TrEMBL record, chain A:
Signal peptide positions on this chain: 1-20
UniProt similarity note: Belongs to the bacterial solute-binding protein 1 family.
Source species: Nonomuraea endophytica
Name of the protein this chain belongs to: Multiple sugar transport system substrate-binding protein
GO biological process: maltodextrin transmembrane transport; maltose transport
Pfam families membership: SBP_bac_8
Organism phylogeny: Bacteria, Bacillati, Actinomycetota, Actinomycetes, Streptosporangiales
UniProtKB/TrEMBL annotation, chain B:
Protein name per its UniProtKB record: Multiple sugar transport system permease protein
Gene3D superfamilies referenced in this protein's UniProt entry, alphabetically: MetI-like
Topology term for the membrane: Multi-pass membrane protein
ABC transmembrane type-1 domain segment(s): 74-279
GO cellular component, one term: plasma membrane
């Protein structure tokens, strides 16, 4: 009997432990200055994908601040795991991390739970940043995370087959009707339609590109956006396997020449241009801002920002470090090593960087037109509700009107 | 006097074990059950900050237990458990019989049968995902264009196939251990008496291997009822066709709904405990069956 009791207890127990930790509700954060003036060494919870560039910046800082050295700790690769790790730390009030790299959509949750401190003062001047990316760092109008990375969806298209990239969905369909009959095994358009965060991104992009707006998803524009996706799947404009696509599955399909148009983030530009034989379309594609219903579309904003942990013991140093990392000089040094798009506007005009990343002008245009995902303290619930109905729309299991009505009633109380 | 002292000594010596058990087993269990009656972090104050502290919620967190999503997850969990355990028992016994035979290359065969069990579940999930993707091996071999990893009935099948592939060797291994202690004389005697191969399997092998087999089935039941990783990696979270109870609990906990997560966790615990109890009562799976019982059985069977 013991064996399985333990087994079962562990299931319940793992939960229990996590809960016990968070159960002891937080007291108010202490505001008084510690004896060391809030200065001292720091730990920076950073991303794996940008590890090399981050380390370079950290090394530069450490060389200039021998008494306030920063250690970079890499968070897990998947966004869900990153969030879980940061939340666990916050719930135990751990000072293990001082500066946090948080996803653009977590700002509300971290601010409202008092896990991150508001960033005020001249160190956090956001004038030089792309305005949409600054918005992602704000909660109720106050800045809680300093913009660092940004980005939005780009339309990758086959330059060898398409003369002029489409500005609207109808133009895109027209180009497909001309080009596809001569291409074997090629579909018109692809995006990320598996049931995960990418679906929220793609669905929000369609709604915003049709002139709709969250949370009013039963509006006529939102319906047209949903029909663009639903009809796309039934007519074969979007291949039916796209319902299993995340970024990488679709990238592979595009690289194999199975897609004429594909929506993805900027990171794919480098990968699809590799000339080691992994990509059949190297040198044969270009990028453009995504199309919309009646004109250029509005992409969904991605990105990561820097937040100050409310439980840090060295907040003054941490604020200096955040300002340092997001300075124009360091963001450029970062961009020269890593292709993740940065939030500073000046970098999109920098000739050296444009030479390295030819897509920057198109990306800037996209970011300026882009819209953030609905901001909410319980973003997890919001995105789950969007995915639930959007997945029914793309997989054709529910009529568009019904799915949107359900999404509307689920989002209503969450986004009020 | 001596007796009391010995008693005290005895308690003294087992107490570390009891303390560890209390800490590792009972504390988390009680903490989770307590949490299932509380709610926290679900309301905002006027300035947009989360209201701190927790408040008693009564049975509100358990409301979802009657909801469509929980019932669907219960159905999926039960279906996966029944189907996979049944298939694994059949395949596992077959594997054990093959592994038990003496022939050249037996060691190699044993090792290769055990490979799936040695692969971490998350890794095997990724591997099967690659097999089952739209332009993957499965569709190429079958000549089909099924979207196995999309939400739907095919996803159920994909999970079952991957799970059976992975855990049949486990059943095989335990059954093999059971086979190895059946004395050869028993078979000899049966052969002398003119029993056919089928009779020998049905009347001797199966009854004698039963204790080991029941342990294997019980372990697999416990495992299958709390399956999480395979559907999560292979198909993805929050897909109704493969969402299991553990998957549902994980999802609620990730979205910081600790109250409902604990309530579902408690419900799953009760479910598993009931199944285990019924299994032990009905099939008399005497987990502490010792050599005595086994010797007696083998004597009976031989007689």
């Amino acid at each position: 009997m013991h064996g399985k009791k333990i087994t079962a207890a562990v299931v319940a127990g793992l939960l229990g432990l996590g809960l016990a930790a968070c159960g002891q509700g937080a007291g108010s954060t202490s505001t008084q200055k510690p004896a060391d003036g809030g200065r001292g060494p720091l730990t920076f919870a950073s991303g794996k994908f940008e590890a090399e560039a981050t380390q370079k910046i950290v090394d530069t800082w450490n060389a200039a601040h021998p008494n306030e050295k920063v250690t970079s700790v890499l968070l897990p690769e998947s966004a869900d795991e990153q969030r879980r790790k940061l939340i666990q730390n916050a719930q135990t009030k751990s000072d293990a991390f001082d500066v946090l790299l948080i996803d653009a959509v977590w700002t509300g949750e971290f601010a409202a739970n008092r896990w991150a401190d508001e960033l005020t003062g001249p160190r956090f001047d956001v004038a030089g940043f792309l305005p949409p990316s600054v918005e992602t760092g704000k909660y109720r109008g106050k800045l809680y995370a300093m913009p660092l990375f940004t980005g939005t969806g780009l339309l990758y298209y086959r330059e060898d087959l398409v003369k002029q990239p489409p500005k609207t969905w109808d133009e895109m369909k027209k180009i497909c009707a001309e080009v596809l009959p001569k291409q074997k095994g090629m579909s018109c358009y692809g995006g990320q339609f598996d049931k995960y965060e990418g679906l929220t991104v793609n669905f929000a992009e369609a709604v915003n590109s049709a002139g709709g707006q969250f949370p009013e998803v039963s509006s006529e524009s939102a319906k047209q956006a949903a029909r663009f996706l639903a009809d796309g799947f039934t007519s074969g404009m979007i291949p039916k396997e796209a319902v299993t696509y995340k970024e990488e599955e679709g990238r592979v399909a595009f690289q194999e020449g199975k897609l004429l148009f594909y929506r993805n983030w900027a990171y794919m530009y480098e990968a699809a241009n590799k000339t080691d034989g992994s990509s059949k379309v190297a040198g044969k594609f270009d990028v453009a801002p995504i199309p919309g219903l009646n004109g250029p579309g509005a992409g969904t904003l991605g990105g990561n920002n820097l937040a100050l942990s409310a439980f840090s013991k060295h907040k003054e140093t941490a604020k200096d470090f955040i300002a340092f990392v997001t300075s124009a000089e360091q963001e450029k040094a970062f961009a020269l090593i890593n292709s993740t798009p940065m939030a500073r506007a000046s970098l999109y005009e920098d000739p050296e960087l444009i030479k390295k990343y030819p897509y920057l002008p198109a990306l800037k245009e996209g970011i300026l037109a882009a819209k953030p995902r609905p901001s909410a303290v319980k973003y997890g619930d919001v995105t789950a509700a969007i995915q639930e109905s959007a997945y029914a729309i793309v997989s054709g299991t529910k009529p568009v009107d019904q799915a949107l009505a359900e999404m509307q009633s689920a989002l209503g109380p969450l986004l009020k | 006097m001596i007796r009391t002292r010995q008693n005290l000594l005895g308690w003294g010596m087992v107490s570390p074990t009891l303390v560890v058990l209390a800490l590792v087993v009972f504390y988390p269990l009680v903490a989770a059950m307590r949490e299932s009656f509380y709610t926290s972090g679900q309301t905002l104050d006027a300035d947009g900050f989360v209201v701190e502290g927790e408040r008693f919620a009564g049975a509100a967190n358990y409301a979802g237990v009657l909801g469509e999503r929980f019932l669907n997850a219960t159905f999926n969990t039960t279906l996966f458990t029944v189907v996979t355990v049944a298939m694994e028992v059949v395949l596992g016994v077959a594997m054990a019989l093959v592994m038990h035979r003496a022939f050249r290359g037996r060691a190699f065969l044993r090792a290769s049968i055990l490979v799936p069990w040695a692969v971490p579940t998350a890794v095997s999930g990724l591997m099967w995902k690659w097999i089952f993707q739209a332009d993957g091996v499965a569709n190429a071999i079958l000549g089909t264009q099924i979207l196995w990893t999309a939400d739907g009935v095919w996803a159920k099948l994909a999970v079952i196939v991957a799970d059976v592939w992975k855990t049949s060797p486990f059943v095989g291994l335990l059954v093999l251990a059971g086979l190895q202690i059946i004395p050869a004389e028993v078979y000899e005697a049966a052969r002398v008496d003119g029993a056919s191969a089928w009779q020998r399997f049905w009347r001797i092998t199966l009854p004698l291997v039963k204790p080991a087999l029941l342990v294997a089935v019980l372990f697999r039941l416990m495992d299958a009822l709390r399956v999480f990783d395979l559907p999560y990696v292979l198909i993805g979270p929050r897909k109704a066709s493969v969402e299991t109870l553990s998957g549902l609990i994980w999802d609620e906990a990730t979205r910081v709904h600790y109250g409902p997560a604990s309530a579902y966790g408690t419900a799953l615990f009760v479910y598993i405990a009931v199944i285990a109890f019924v299994f032990v009562k009905l099939l008399g799976a005497d987990l502490l069956s010792d050599v005595r019982a086994r010797k007696k059985e083998s004597r009976d069977a031989a007689a």
